[in-house]
Amino acid sequence: MANAFDIIKENRKEVAEKVIKMMEEGYFFNNPSWNKLAFRPCNPSTNVVYRGGNKIRLMNEAIENKYTDPRWMTFNQISKNGYNLQKGSKGVLCEKWIFDKVEKIKNHETGEVEEIRTPLEQPRVRYFKVFNAKDIDGLPKLEKKELTDKETLDIVDRMIRSSQCKISEIAQDGAFYIPSKDEICLPLRESFKDEIAFSKVCLHEMSHSTGHSSRLDRGMFSSDKYSQTYAKEELRAEIGALFTEKELNLNLKTEHYEDHANYLNHYIKLFKEDPNELFRACTDADKIGDLLIRNYEKQLVLEKVNEISFQVQECSEFHHLGKVKENISSIEEALKSYENFCISKNHMGPGISIIINKQEYPIYFGDMAAHAYYESSIQKNKVFKDAIEKCKAYDLQKKKHDLERKEDFSENQKLDCLEKKKEIVPKKGKVLLEQEMELCL
């Protein structure tokens, strides 16, 4: 009879083969027809979210069986809670590794029973089976909450602000993380298909940044795109971004993963040579997600404590003439409101202010000079600094666009004047006509 280790070893091969088949069809958990809600498998009895290889197992089962419910339970948990398992239901094997021996010893000084953990010389492994909620009668109906596009982008913007490394938007084609500089470089936001596509790519690069020596120190960075090391790091960033996305209840529908189709063959080769590589990658991906979520939650607390928001108001040299929109959650949304207002109100320009602890700080009115006069505590505020950088980038693009429009307008004006010349030559004298042309040009 096979022992637990052999059973799990064989099961890992089966899971890897299923993932290989998926990748050979050109997908890596990114087919738009799949229900992404089931990509965050959890146990309603223990409130545990499954991790690592177990998460990939259950995600894959959800795809195969078209499950739309992310909840899974053991047979004992089903019975204990008074539910019933449907006849003929098949469980999915999961694994549990035990690294410590736990002993309960009474402390003679305090009289309390304490748990003492002792590392095992060799870890022990157990397996168990879980069943999907679709096969369980009596389980309460799942409450589904889908985020709006605005809520999604607000979360992603906060995630970006929580980055531990610098994120630069540059006029370039590729997106990449530079370990030596600890910096993420992305193409300009407007060059993407939409905000969601930008968010997906940014989250992928942020996953790479967690491998820096000052963080998780994965030591897998390589400049050789055809090396196994490069493929392994790319795989971890891909799965790490996927785990993070689902943990935040995001559904970033985009073609991002297909941009990485060139890596699929590398992954297939890795899994065929060693099915355990998929499970090692999932373990590292969990660590990536944990760090990104932890940073996100810190940022969330920081912004709530500081009560940070933005507003756009009609003004002239920062003398307010009337508020336009308040309680804006992100600088990106503020810039959109600013642009819309510019279009509708040509006679008076709006300005953007950041509100920190109910104190207003103007940050954009086509002039970036005023920011240097704010106190150092404001200057060091991460949200403030990010907003200034975004305003600078926007201002640069706006001036470039305005210059191009001006040049186009001048050309059109010249053509109009030449057309007028043909019409008015018979009616006016030559001298008067030349004067009009000079004024026109």
Description:
- There is one protein chain.
- The chain has 441 residues and is of the alpha+beta class.
- It has helices at 4-24, 52-65, 75-80, 149-161, 195-209, 228-247, 256-259, 261-273, 276-306, 331-344, 376-379, 382-424, 430-440, and strands at residues 42-43, 48-49, 72-73, 84-85, 92-106, 113-132, 136-137, 166-170, 176-178, 183-187, 308-316, 319-328, 350-356, 359-364.
- Strands 12-11-13-14 form a 4-stranded antiparallel beta sheet. It has a 3-stranded antiparallel beta sheet with strand order 3-6-5. The protein has a 3-stranded mixed beta sheet with strand order 8-10-9, with helices on one face.
- A hairpin with a 4-residue loop joins β1 (42-43) and β2 (48-49).
- It is globular.
- Residues 424-441 have low confidence and may be disordered.
